[in-house]
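Re: weekly structure request thread

Next one in the queue (256 aa):
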Amino acid sequence: MVSSNIFGARILDLALEVEDHLIISDLHLGYEEALNYQGLMIPKFQYPKIIQRMEEIHSRSECSRIIINGDLKHEFGKINRQEWKETLKFIDYLQERFQEIILIKGNHDPLTPIIAQKTGLEVYGNYSTGNFQVIHGDRIPEKWDEIKEENIVIGHEHPAVGIRSGERIEKIKCFLAGNFRDKNLIVMPSFNFITEGSDVLHEKLLSPFLKEMKHDEMEVFGVEKFETFYFGKISHLLKVQPEPYHYDSHFIDFKS
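Done, posted below.
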């Protein structure tokens, strides 16, 4: 276990503390119902796990504000029944515990403003906490030169690393840290418990930030049960585990 500080921000399990702001990303509420429509019959287990993890994080944090950095819900062009129920419940839950809730628009959020209106919230394209700018990460801002903050926090990528131990491979959610253009960049893991995420060692990158930069120089901070583990740079992990491997794209984590 190592220091959980990156560029002055503190890793707290799957969340990030930046000054008085707690940041989480990519919840994808309603994902189970979307998979059910595709013929994958899985139980709706994610919401209780999200609440359980939030309770643990909140008990260890004194932040009075929370930022959801995109993809609060899963469906693109509609709001399914599960999404209506769970997003409204989740926002009620947060309003009882935080003085302010900031919603950042993600690529899965074209209809999230409808939900926000019903709860008295707004949806932002980006948000500044002072020296950190929070952006979902599905696109690079056109007016990059006008960004004053030294640090950028993104989600969208759902980063994880596949750690090989003999014939067994464990996928671990992780934070990534590096330099993008003239800024420090932090990539957050998803707050989603349907999948562990995309293996940054061998799977296709999603974010244009990582596609543009030399991402193998990014440092990897694995998170597991409120412990942070420093794995070194992606380039180092690729040397240790050079062989590609296949994952089931719909891996479901039913563990508590």
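Confidence is low (pLDDT under 50) at residues 244-256. The chain has six helices and 16 strands.
Next request, please.
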